[in-house]
Specification:
Elements: E1 15-21, E2 31-38, E3 43-50, H1 54-60, E4 65-68
Parallel strand pairs: 1-4
Antiparallel strand pairs: 1-2, 2-3
């Protein structure tokens, strides 16, 4: 992830998300914790969602990079 201001595009948001899957398995109702930071402004948001709605939440918030632990 680039965090040097000179290397980040200045004409768009630079949004990074980190997700943690809280339940075992791949059920749509499984809980997911998510943290989002906008790198150029430092705005930080956390929220909980389900596996079924995670992709929609990330798209709605215009996330450009995603961090997650492989399990």
């Amino acid at each position: 992830t680039l965090v040097d201001d000179s290397l980040l595009p200045g004409d768009s948001a630079n949004t990074l998300a980190a997700v943690a899957f809280l339940d075992a398995g791949d059920e749509p109702a499984n809980r997911v914790a998510c943290a989002i930071v906008e790198l150029s402004t430092g705005a930080f948001t956390i929220f909980a969602t389900t596996a079924a709605t995670l992709a929609d939440e990330l798209a709605r918030r215009s996330v450009s990079e995603l961090l997650y632990a492989e399990t």
